[in-house]
Design goal:
CATH superfamily of the largest domain: FAD/NAD(P)-binding domain
Oligomer: single chain
Distance between the termini: 43 Å
Number of domains: 2
Shape: elongated
Order of helices and strands: EHEHEEEEEHHEHEHEEEEEEHEH
Helix content: 25-40%
Radius of gyration: 22 Å
Structural class: alpha/beta
Largest sheet: 7 strands, mixed
Number of helices: 8
Number of strands: 16
CATH topology of the largest domain: FAD/NAD(P)-binding domain
CATH architecture of the largest domain: 3-Layer(bba) Sandwich
CATH class of the largest domain: Alpha Beta
Mean pLDDT: 91
Length: 322
């Protein structure tokens, strides 16, 4: 844990924001909404790569019975946060440094000082090597979260693609929804005996051949193996891992686990006082509702912390609120 020198009271008014939020996904925008409604000066710096933006339609997010696309949800959250005074700017945060008043943050050749900070940068899924992966996601043939949309695959021909142990574990979960589940685990051998036994237990078809090509069809995904076999599936779930977008925080020396997920306490505060993390960049269940709950927790903790050191005062209410 690193500690910056205490700020002299005479310098307190020089902080640009009470809180800067790195990342404009559901977690970051929810934190901005809460902080703005607490009359805190907050800024969201958003690189525009939220994982939620890939969702064609989510039907398990509460309050939207017909479902809602990820981009529509993000736009609603942006509008709501803006309505209460949160500022949102496009940019990629390049560096975070400790400062006597909190943190100095640099992005797009701009630098500002924030008293506290929230990292909400999420993760980046490793997608299969295929020319049209993004189009396949938009069409609903390539899917990233069985917890989110497993219900919608009921009865479909589904494949999970990845390393044997991980892929078979995901496939066993998908057997809740379909009796036509396969695993594509190139190179699976007797060393994966326990996973293979699990596949047999759940009546999961196992394809161990090396994959030559994945291709999106109008009605699904086609898999061509090196041996010349062709398999077609309605839906394919890649199980190839993901990268935690935590590098900018790690350069500050923030504690993380072996995968790069930021470690937090019960209020979402990291090992650096005043720096919080929410959403997929934190270890745990990767769900929008989880990120939103974490954001509410972090924003409230930040407000209470700032209230204990109440310089400068909060922003005035905006008259355009309805």
């Amino acid at each position: 844990m690193t500690r910056a020198p205490d700020a002299p009271p005479s310098e307190a008014s020089r902080a640009d924001y009470d809180c800067l939020i790195v990342g404009g996904g559901p977690g970051g925008l929810t934190a901005a909404l809460y902080l703005a409604r607490f009359r805190r000066r907050c800024l969201v710096v958003d690189a525009g790569c939220s994982r939620a933006g890939l969702i064609p339609r989510s039907r398990n997010y509460p309050g939207f019975p017909p479902g809602i696309s990820g981009n529509d949800l993000l736009e609603r959250l942006r509008q709501q946060a803006d309505e209460y005074g949160a500022q949102i700017e496009h940019g990629t945060v390049e560096s975070i440094e400790l400062h006597p008043l909190g943190f100095a943050v640099t992005w797009n050749a701009r630098r500002c000082i924030a008293r506290q900070l929230i990292i909400a940068t999420g993760i980046e899924d490793t997608l299969p090597q295929m020319d049209d992966a993004r189009q396949a996601i938009a069409a609903g043939h390539l899917r990233l979260c069985a917890i989110c949309d497993g219900f919608e695959v009921s009865g479909d021909s589904v494949a999970v693609y990845g390393e044997a142990e991980c892929a078979i574990g995901h496939a066993a979960f998908l057997r809740t929804f379909s009796d036509r589940v396969s695993v594509i685990a190139p190179g699976a051998t007797a060393a994966d005996e326990q996973a293979i036994q699990l596949a047999a237990h759940y009546d999961i078809r196992l394809i161990c051949a090396e994959v030559q090509r994945l291709h999106s069809l109008d009605d699904g995904i086609e898999v061509l193996t090196v041996g010349g076999e062709t398999h077609r599936f309605d839906i394919l779930y890649p199980c190839l891992g993901a990268r935690f977008r935590s590098e900018v925080a790690q350069r500050l020396g923030i504690a993380c686990d072996e995968d790069g997920a930021l470690r937090v306490d019960h209020q979402q505060q990291t090992s650096q006082p005043g720096l919080y993390a929410v959403g997929d960049v934190v270890a745990g269940l990767k769900q929008i509702s989880v990120a939103i709950g974490q954001a509410a927790q972090a924003a409230t903790a930040i407000h209470n912390s700032l209230e204990a050191n109440p310089w400068p005062r909060r922003q005035p209410a905006r008259t355009r609120l309805r």
